[in-house]
Design a protein that fits this description.
binds ligand 26W, about 45% helix, globular, alpha/beta, Rossmann fold, 2 domains, single chain, 33 helices
Length: about 800
């Protein structure tokens, strides 16, 4: 790699042998040892990248996110460093199995789902493209809860991923510690020398933000970018005066109140709970990160900020870090004495906002009074931003007071609307798939679009092929390398060349064999975890994602019950055996989602033990679905379920991972499915369901009971559900779930899509019966997935928003 390079094997041995007693060495210990050796090994490249950023770059981007769902890092880092063979050989020589040591790594589960995993994929792509991008996030002591299933119910247990409070990949950078203020009050004071009015924020609490840096290794390009995660600490472990006054408990409690800020990730990904602690987390992230950037700037340029906007850009991952708009104003004005207009110009030239959801319940807003108590100075600034903004609105729509009311950052109920703050403070606003970005312009943010059409743009999501093909599916990686060379890893459009093999039966046979082996690997795991035996000749039909009504796991369950009832009636001519796999976590407070998990498990239990059913149908709930689970599930999937109500899923990213790994999709015209279908053509995609505009037109006219009356299959399904066939000793437990899908007010319009879903499923089953034709479609899915590489997405962000020079 370079002349500073350390002897990897010697270092590995050093860490492996550095155990007091080898008899008690566990796989976790070995994992930690190898991670430590690799971290040391990548240090020179990391240092060089930082030096390059410091000395050469003209512009730097910062990705601000409350979530980074990294998962495991060992395999990825080895692969990106190009040292897989070396490490494997060293392990073999020691008589150790790298495979089981890889599995011993805990997932860094610092995210809920799509938004957090996207941030992790983006970090990988930025480093692989050698772009100067730094991630800023929080070092939660507990990531997303671990899910246990007891009697079919989800049980949440704490995720202690930081064994003994350390993570082998991170480096503590306490020299960059800064302080974040909370509470207290503000007053204005006139500087006697300058005559300038200054605001003093006298906080009543200060919390230390201590950075821990995680290396982000680019793909074999000598680049190691940084993900900086903040850990909250008390300013002094014990306030001595309180201690001396004998209030030992009070002193320790202060310590805990500071530490609580980064104690746990909120396990919520679709509605905000309005808790003070969450607002503290958001401000803590934003303030520490911006102070970090400004301190660095001032060290290099002094307090001249005239070039700051040319040199820095902040990408806000949803509204969670949107206080950055107010905080950058505060720092520039209060700490560095800029005038309001100068500061506002800088803010509105450096902030860019990405929206990830259209669901109204997921849009963040905070009570003004909560903000006043916790963040008095940032609130003053938000109020001032709003005053300026509403003047602009009144110029655009003179006399239209309702426009001002609708657009105001602070609404009539005394809530601060974070999306409005983010849009007003940013020069760019983007959605995450073409359809989603159009809906932002035409619906959710229409007035803002009329005001500032130039701000709005689309950046269709993508996922990293390093993790989602090369690391997760080594057999496919090898086949691709043998067939196409290895350029596809950094230029995924190269996969198009696979099309040349679409009619090559020998090639298709190899293609199928890889899939079957991956299915076996998953089947072994499922057997070991759940005792359920899977036949890999069956179609593996998979829906893994957060459990949410808009994602309609319930529609999938209705189909499962439909298949079961067909089997029971003996209607099994031309049957295609299926394994239906579900996985996903429900937010702990989301009762309907938890009931959905219970229903899936109950249906699985009845179906799997029924002797009439046998291999015709198996149902699996895969517990504790997480990044590392997807790494095994996605290469083993034949059919990917992307069945959300059209207009509700902003993009989806699981859909892309499946496509790359040669799964076919059954899906609605929602999120990025639309663009997948465009790349694939209708003949390679099982399309069903109403379109977004049709769903909207249904509002107020939806009559699910009529649909049931017209459809004997639906009647049979509801009959089984209602007589308690899946709730024998738990009478009535599914009544609310059943009632919600029969409710004319059902926002997810599940039954409206039932018939077309069942038909599309039948087509999929039929198609699966021709292995050669299926493998051909599978190959085309992979071949046409190039545009869903996160590299393409990041190049789009860079071309339109960040405008960085790559540092290759
Ligand atoms: C305040 C509570 C909360 C927390 C997280 C509300 C909303 C969120 C996220 C915005 C939810 C999320 O993860 N959205 C997903 O983002 C993915 C990446 O862009 C998309 O692919 C998914 O469609 C979208 O649901």
């Amino acid at each position: 790699m370079n002349n500073e390079q350390i002897d990897l094997k010697a270092s590995l041995l050093h860490y492996l042998q550095n155990q007091l007693d080898r008899r008690f060495t566990t796989e976790q210990d070995y994992n930690r040892a190898v991670a430590s050796a690799i971290r040391d090994y990548l240090m020179p490249a990391w240092r060089e990248t930082l030096a390059r950023h410091h000395h050469q770059e003209k512009r730097h981007a910062y990705y601000l996110s409350m979530e980074f769902l990294i998962g495991r890092s060992l395999v990825n880092n080895m692969q990106n460093l190009g040292i897989e063979n070396e490490v494997t050989q060293a392990f073999n020589e020691l008589g150790l199995s790298l495979e089981s040591i890889q599995q011993a790594e805990a997932d860094a589960g610092l995210g809920n789902g799509g938004l957090g995993r996207l941030a992790a994929c983006f970090m990988d792509s930025c480093a692989s493209l050698a772009l100067p991008v730094t991630g800023y996030g929080l070092r939660y002591e507990y990531g997303l809860f671990r899910q246990l299933i007891k009697n079919g119910h989800q049980i949440e247990t704490p995720d202690c991923w930081l064994e003994f409070n350390s993570y082998p990949w991170e480096v503590n950078r306490k020299e960059y510690t800064c302080k974040v203020k909370f509470g207290g009050h503000c007053w204005t004071h006139k500087d006697p020398d300058t005559g300038r009015f200054e605001v003093i924020w006298q906080a009543d609490e200060e919390v230390l933000a201590v950075p821990f840096d995680v290396p982000i290794v680019g793909y074999q390009n000598n680049t190691v970018n940084t993900l900086r995660l903040w850990d909250a600490n008390a300013t002094e472990a014990f306030k001595l005066d309180e201690f001396n006054a004998g209030d030992y408990f009070e002193a320790v409690a202060t310590n805990n109140s500071a530490k609580s800020i980064t104690m746990v990730l909120y396990p919520n990904d679709s509605n905000q709970n309005g808790k003070t602690l969450r607002l503290r987390q958001q401000y803590f992230l934003v303030s520490a990160s911006l102070q970090d950037v400004l301190t660095h700037w001032v060290k290099k340029h002094g307090i001249d900020f005239s070039q700051f906007a040319q040199a820095n850009v902040f990408q806000l991952n949803d509204t969670h870090p949107s206080l950055a708009v107010a905080e950058l104003m505060r720092l520039l004005i209060d700490e560095y004495q800029l005038e309001w207009n100068q500061a506002w110009l800088i803010v509105t030239q450096t902030m860019a906002y990405t929206n990830h959801t259209l669901l109204p319940e997921a849009l963040e807003s905070w009570p003004v009074e909560m903000m006043r108590t916790l963040l008095p100075r940032p609130l003053e600034i938000i109020e001032e931003i709003n005053r300026h903004f509403l003047v602009q609105v009144s110029y655009k729509w003179p006399g239209e007071l309702d426009k001002q009311r609708q657009l105001s950052i602070i609404d009539g109920y005394g809530m601060v609307k974070m999306a409005h703050l983010a849009i007003v403070g940013s020069f760019s606003v983007n959605g995450v798939a073409a359809l989603h970005s159009e809906l932002l312009k035409s619906k959710l943010f229409n007035h803002f679009y009329q005001l500032w059409p130039h701000k709005f743009n689309n950046k269709t999501n993508g996922v990293t092929p390093r993790r989602w093909i090369a690391a997760a599916n080594p057999a496919l990686r090898n086949l691709l390398n043998d067939t196409l060379g290895s350029d596809w890893i950094t230029n995924l459009n190269q996969l198009e060349q696979l099309e040349a093999y679409q009619n090559d039966s020998a090639f298709l046979a190899r293609w199928r064999e890889i899939k079957q082996n991956n299915k076996q690997r998953l089947a072994d795991f499922v057997a070991q975890q759940t005792g359920i035996e899977l036949n890999i000749e069956a179609m593996f039909d998979v829906q893994v994602k957060r459990i949410h009504q808009y994602k309609r796991q319930i529609l999938n369950v209705l189909h499962v019950i439909h298949l079961y009832s067909q089997i029971k009636k003996g209607q099994t001519d031309n049957w295609t055996n299926r394994v239906v796999i579900f996985g996903g976590k429900a937010a702990p407070g989301y009762w309907m989602a938890k009931q959905t998990i219970k229903l899936i498990n109950n249906v699985a239990q009845i179906v799997n033990k029924d002797r009439d059913v046998g291999d015709k149908l198996k149902v699996v709930f895969y517990p504790d679905y997480r990044v590392s689970a997807m790494e095994m599930v996605c290469p083993a999937t034949d059919l990917s379920e992307q069945i959300s109500t059209a207009g509700k899923e902003a993009s989806g990213t699981g859909n892309m991972k499946f496509m790359m790994n040669g799964a076919l999709t059954i899906g609605t015209l929602d999120g990025a499915n639309v663009e997948m279908l465009e790349a694939l053509g209708q003949q390679n995609f099982f399309l069903f369901g109403l379109e977004a505009h049709q769903i909207q037109a249904l509002e107020g006219h939806y009559q699910p009971q009529d649909l049931i009356n017209q459809d004997t299959d639906l009647q049979a399904i509801f009959h089984l559900l209602e007589v308690g066939h899946f709730s024998l000793f738990e009478s009535g437990i599914f009544d609310p779930l059943i009632a919600s899908s029969k409710d004319p007010a059902d926002p997810w319009k599940t039954l409206a899509d039932f018939r077309s879903y069942i038909d599309a499923q039948a087509q999929a089953a039929q198609a699966y019966r021709d292995p050669q034709a299926w493998s051909r479609m599978s190959l085309l899915n992979c071949a046409r997935s190039g545009r869903f590489s996160a590299d393409r997405t990041i190049q789009d962000y860079n071309r339109d928003i960040w405008k960085l020079n790559d540092l290759k």
